[in-house]
Here is the input.
Amino acid sequence: MPVRDRLAPGGIVLGAINARYRHTAFGLRYLLANLGALAERAQIVETFVQQPASAIVDALLASEPRVVGLGVYVWNTTRALEVVTQLRARRPDLVIVLGGPEVSHEWQTQSIVELADYTVTGEGEEVFRRLCESLLDGERPEEAVLHGTSPPLEQLALPYHLYTDEDLAHRVVYVEASRGCPFRCQFCLSSLDAGVRMVPREGFFTEMERLLERGARDFKFIDRTFNLRIADSVAILRFFLDRLRPGLSLHFEMVPDRLPEPLRELLAAFPPRTVQLEIGIQSWSEEVGRLIERRQDAERTEANLRFLAEETDVHVHADLIVGLPGEDLATFAVGFDRLLGLRPQEIQVGILKRLRGTPITVHDETRSMVYRAEPPYEIVSTSTMSVDEVEAMKRFARFWDLVANSGNFREATPLIWSTTSSAFAGFAAFSEWLHQALGRTHHIQLHELAVTVFDYLVDELDLDAGLAALAVARDIHRTRGRKTPKVLKPHLPDGWRPPVAPPVTGGLVRQARHAGAP
Here is the structure.
């Protein structure tokens, strides 16, 4: 057990282990903004999960803090345990405080919680401040697990001034107009929320104006249901539409069956590569939706996706989940083909995860739900999907992301299923062939992938080599600076020269590849 009776000199370090450099720790910025008078004695130290644990520990201890607060999430929990273990060994007197979704539920069985001094569950702005006030006054609360509160958001200080100029120039700016979700989808931690709270509109827009003036261009809204309250959604879209500037990129997560006319009109007004919508379909099966308590009007969802594809320049990232209770490979295939027919730019094929605290566990026995014991707790098998089928779908998801979602093979991708009536079946066959050909699903260079796609189209599907070569070559040159693979050159038209891809002046590079041929 950690030592809790000695404190070293120093202040507070809020530590982040981000998924990658481009991400920023929004929650820690909220904690720092609400530390009150203690903010002057605190700082944020951001690292990323690819760094060795020892390097992360060095960064956290560089200022000789008295307290280290660490955010723990499903993607960093393994590295976080290594970090906390080393922190405890190097600084037995250090007060370690944990927070974040991974330790907010089922903390009783977690080794990392045992190693730490305190764990804050849920929203921590108020509780963490009070804890730090006590610690720096030399008082040690006896309770090791402290439960966060959910104050009205007007009582919290906004954190946007804590984004640095480097953040604004090179990283994602996370923003929040609301907290909570009204829905009860059993696979999602938001199903535990007690309603939705809104950030006061005036203060929010003041902060957004300041970010724009400072040069912020890449905004990602973390609201679970951006289009829940239409008046607020309209106000936010209107705000940014009135302030369009080169490079502006907006990301929202929306309810798929709720897109009334005021939102349609505004979304249609944005130029290409400005707005990305993340739309969670998850499953088209009514039976699956009933089991997981997910309400969704399929006809309205189809109409909304069709409108976005035909009447707007919005980039649509739609989600499906493999392994939900009651879903089998056949129903998933039907749903995949149905979604693909509605022309989203990306389909994220996710593998079900048993996030700590979520009520999806009610199906463990009745649906034979088996999950991996290690993070990120992915599904292994269900009563309707075997181990082999789940593993095949993990390969499918990986290769779909590399080939289709990436936008690197915009013209070649439809050729993969051109000889079948089902896109899912066609790509599933390609996925298994590709895995056999390469023997791996990661560390695949784009040039190697392009050659392999061409080989499959010609050797396995017996497509015309000229047609396949031209499609792959045009895809390769959708981004500047790429070279034509040698295997394609004999099959390209005489005198063919790659078109010059236009420079990407705004939005995301991935969106630009989906936007159209150069």
The longest strand covers residues 275-282. The chain has three domains: 12-153, 163-385, 392-518. Residues 1-8 have pLDDT under 50 and may be disordered. Residues 131 and 137 are 10 Å apart (CA to CA).
